[in-house]
Amino acid sequence: MSGVQEFFHMGGYAVYVWSSYAIALVVLVANILVPVFQRRKLLARLARRQRRERRQP
Questions:
Q1: What global pTM score does this model have?
Q2: Residue 1 has pLDDT above 80, yes or no
């Protein structure tokens, strides 16, 4: 095997190693995106509440 193939094969543990990296990447991306979406949802809810309060005398 060449050096690159050997690196990606990981001594027979490639499935475990690369799946671990994939899971870690998914968790990191989720840790970034979930708060962004929650913030947008919260701001929209607050804007609706503010508009509703302005309309009521």
A1: 0.68
A2: no
